[in-house]
Structures are given as structure tokens and as C-alpha cells.
Design brief:
Helix 3 crosses helix 4 and helix 3 packs antiparallel against helix 12. With 476 residues, the protein is mostly helical. The longest helix is centred in the first third of the chain and has 44 residues. The N terminus and C terminus are likely disordered. 66% of the residues lie in helices and 0% in strands.
Length: 476
């Protein structure tokens, strides 16, 4: 059963029960336990811990606020709809472009992590990396093209398997004889270093420590970034006013528990942050350390790590497809990106657009030798996310004041204070990335280019295009 819009075109089906909604929240983020966060250790374990604590509070406030918005305005557009409801079409396009950037480039970041794990475990040449990226995109665009049910079932099964693998790792690390908390720092125990300045030296001043904290924030965010993807399931979740808040909030707190084990367990193994801070496969490194005497076991478990990365990749393919689809049917993107394959009711136009864009950007960075591909793409992801967060929290506060009659099945216990904390923190993170991220200038240039193209299209072609969404937003 599926609905038809005013143009007699098929739209998305409601297939997601609460377990699938929970799996979207956790599955979108689970790869953060396996890759990405560890780059923040280059700022020092102390700086990274403080950044992670701030980011945790940040995401608690964000999720409570978005739970209220998603229950009141359930839609496949998620952030786009919230901002459009508050600030009109210009607000919608600015927020939608940021969210779209986050989702598409999270896929690209996860692709680089997957290829890193595959090359590390198989021993094949790193020159084949672009071929691996292409294969990953092809397989998961095809999977999502076959319908939402197959995609959601894969996400749920793979998420549960990934959690089981993490539990095995935690237990193995904690009982490992050489596990030692002194590996959290680099020193002799008496002169441990908890903060590093920008020259990879131990911090000796408050300004250096603050710099280290600031540099660690994007990588701390990687541990929880994406949990808000649940908002995009508004047209596919069963009873969205109830299941979206439940799935998102329970998923977030479950992920926080995982983080509290992943960081100390992985960092407490021999070589500690010295090795982890530059590794593209930190959990596999830990498994090979623990099971050094049983290489077959280490290899098998490390191969299973790829399942977690595939889970996140698949979830973000789902996310960017819904966001691009919503941007297209509301006139912000060309209408072809809103094409739905009638047989499977899947947004094929949006799936192909996100995959092609992500792959092209990866190739540009790879072949121009612009630096560490994973870290550049990750920073682009964070920039897009912070812009989207700023817009969403502004919408939350505005709608609280201007649309008091809007039915809210769930109300955030943190109210405007929580939204304001996220808004201010997002502004700080965005400014810090632009000001301090000179080594990843490609990330800033890429984000600016994305917004210039997107806003120009909207200004020239999109402003007066009619929307084709099957519901009237103002009647929700």
C-alpha cells in the first residue's frame, strides 16, 4: 500500500516499526565506534575527552529538540520541512543544502573507511581504492533501489551484529593483560601529556589547550553524528508521532553507552593514542593486538568490522536519498532527482545523484593529492551538519514562539534552552572549523562551492517552481 500525490505519482511507503527506527538511529552512527573518532586523539586524550563530553550534551539537547519537531511535522524532508515551516523557502533551501551535504559526505567518509579496512585486511594495492569506492556505491544504491523494506531489514540485522562485535571487543580489551590506562597519554607516567598544540608538542598554556580542544571537536562529533537521521523516516515510520521520538532518544543513549567503552578500551592498548591518532582502522588494530597469538581470529573479527561500516553507509544512503527527494519535489533541486521507481517505490533519482556526487568528490581529492581524503571529507560533513543544526534549532525556537497552536505529540523537556545551547555551540564549531582548519582548506572551499551552486539554482530556477508533495505542509 502506498499513497499517491496530486500528480498521481507514487510516494514513499510506511514500513518502519520502532525496531527499524531505532536501527536507523544507531546504524547511522555505529561506524563512528570503528573509525574517525580516533583522529581526535592527535589533540591529546584530555582534549578529546572534554570535547566528547561537550558533544554528548550537545547531541542530547539536539535530539530532544528534533524529537519534538519530527513528531509534530513528520516528513521525509525532516530538517528541510522544519526550516521551511519557520522561515519559508529560503530557510528551507539553506537548511536542506546543509543536511544534504552532511548525509552525502558521511557516505563518502564511510566509503574511505571501508576501503581502508578492505586494503588493510586483504593486502591489495591501495591504487585500487577508487575501484572499491565505486563497487560500494553500486551495491548499496542497488539495495536501496529495491525498496525501503529490504534496506531497513539489512540495517537492523547489521546494527545488532555490530553491537555484538563491539561487546566482544570491550570484554577482550579489558581482560587483556597489557591493557593500561597510561597508554591514554604519551609519557612515562610522571610526565604524561593530555593536550597537544598545533605543532604536535605537549601543551604548555591555556591557549594551546583550548586549541587542542577545538581541533578535537569534529572527531568527537563523529561518534554521534547522524543519530538525527531518524527525522527523515517521517513518511515511512508507522505511527511517526510516537516512534520517531522513541527511536531517536533510545538510540542516542545507547550510543553514548557504547562511546563510554570504545574510547578507553581502544586507547588503553599498547601504543595507545600514538598509533590510533593516525589509523584508518583503529578497531582492527586493537583486535590484532589482543589476538596477536591467534591471527585467524583477529582477521575474522576485523573482517566483521566492515559490517558496521556498511551499516552506516547504508543508513546514510537512505538519509541522503530522502533529503534529495524532498528537495527535488519541493522545487529546490531539479525535478528529475525526485523520480521514484514505481515498482519498488524507491527514490532512484535521489539515490543516483548522491552516489555520483560523492564519488566524484572522492576522485577529485584523491587524484589532486589534496591531503588525507578521510579527514577532508569528514570536515566537510561536519560543516554541513553544523549549518543544518543552526537552521533547525532556530526553527525550533521560532516555532515555539510563533506556532504555539501547532500540535506537539512530544515536547522536549529541555525547551528553548536546549535548542539555544545547540545553536550557539554549532556556531562556535563552524567558526572554529573555518578559522583553524587551514590544513583542510579543501573542506571549506568544497562547502562554499556547494552552497553557491545550490543557492544559484534556487535563485534562478527554483523559487517559483510548484511543489509536488502529496500533502499540504500548512495543514499538518
Amino acid at each position: 500500500v502506498y499513497k499517491m500525490n496530486e500528480s498521481n505519482q507514487p510516494v514513499l511507503e510506511r514500513k518502519a516499526h520502532l525496531p527499524q527506527v531505532w536501527a536507523i538511529a544507531v546504524g547511522a552512527v555505529i561506524s563512528g565506534q570503528f573509525f574517525g573518532w580516533n583522529f581526535g586523539l592527535a589533540s591529546g586524550f584530555g582534549a578529546f575527552l572534554i570535547a566528547t563530553a561537550v558533544v554528548t550534551v550537545f547531541y542530547i539537547c539536539l535530539v530532544f529538540s528534533l524529537s519534538e519537531l519530527s513528531a509534530a511535522l513528520p516528513s521525509s524532508g525532516g530538517p528541510l520541512l522544519f526550516c521551511e515551516k519557520a522561515f519559508g523557502r529560503w530557510g528551507g533551501v539553506i537548511c536542506g543544502l546543509g543536511a544534504c551535504l552532511e548525509y552525502i559526505f558521511t557516505c563518502a567518509t564511510t566509503t574511505t573507511a571501508l576501503s581502508g579496512y578492505i586494503i588493510y585486511l586483504s593486502g591489495i594495492s591501495s591504487s585500487l581504492e577508487p575501484v572499491i569506492w565505486l563497487a560500494i556505491y553500486f551495491i548499496f544504491v542497488l539495495l536501496n533501489s529495491l525498496g525501503v523494506e529490504s534496506s531497513l531489514n539489512f540495517t537492523l540485522a547489521a546494527t545488532l551484529f555490530s553491537v555484538l562485535l563491539l561487546i566482544v571487543f570491550y570484554i577482550s580489551a579489558l581482560i587483556y593483560p597489557d591493557f593500561d590506562i597510561h597508554y591514554w597519554t604519551v609519557g612515562d607516567g610522571a610526565n604524561d601529556c593530555w593536550f597537544y598544540n598545533g605543532k604536535n608538542q605537549c601543551s604548555t598554556s591555556a591557549s594551546d589547550s583550548f586549541y587542542a580542544f577545538t581541533k578535537a571537536i569534529p572527531f568527537s562529533m563523529w561518534l554521534l553524528l547522524g543519530v538525527e537521521d531518524v527525522c527523515l523516516a517521517g513518511e515511512e515510520a508507522i505511527a511517526p508521532e510516537r516512534n520517531l521520538p522513541r527511536g531517536m532518544i533510545s538510540g542516542l543513549f545507547f550510543l553514548i553507552v557504547l562511546c563510554s567503552f570504545t574510547i578507553p578500551c581502544n586507547s588503553g592498548l599498547p601504543d595507545g593514542i600514538t598509533k590510533l591518532s593516525s589509523s584508518v582502522h583503529p578497531l582492527a588494530d586493537g583486535l590484532y593486538e589482543i589476538f596477536a597469538s591467534s591471527p585467524t581470529v583477529a582477521l575474522t573479527l576485523s573482517c566483521f568490522c566492515c559490517i558496521a561500516l556498511l551499516t552506516t553507509f547504508n543508513t546514510f544512503v537512505y538519509a541522503y536519498a530522502r533529503q534529495v527527494y524532498s528537495l527535488s519535489i519541493r522545487g529546490y533541486f531539479p525535478s528529475i532527482f525526485g523520480f521514484i521507481w514505481q515498482r519498488f517505490k524507491s527514490p532512484v533519482g535521489a539515490l543516483l545523484f548522491g552516489a555520483i556526487l560523492g564519488y566524484i568528490v572522492l576522485l577529485i581529492i584523491y587524484f589532486t593529492g589534496s591531503g588525507a581524503v578521510s579527514q577532508i571529507i569528514l570536515n566537510m560533513t561536519i560543516m554541513g551538519a553544523t549549518v543544518a543544526y543552526i537552521c533547525q534549532m532556530s526553527s525550533f525556537i521560532y516555532l515555539r514562539f510563533k506556532c504555539k497552536d501547532l500540535e506537539r505529540p512530544y515536547v522536549s523537556p529541555l525547551g528553548n534552552f536546549g535548542a539555544l545551547f545547540v545553536l550557539i555551540t554549532s556556531l562556535f564549531i563552524l567558526v572554529s572549523l573555518v578559522a583553524l582548519d587551514s590544513e583542510y582548506r579543501w573542506a571549506t572551499l568544497g562547502c562554499v562551492g556547494w552552497y553557491v551552486i545550490g543557492l544559484l539554482y534556487f535563485l534562478i530556477f527554483g523559487r517559483n517552481q510548484p511543489t509536488t508533495q502529496f500533502y499540504n505542509m500548512d495543514q499538518m
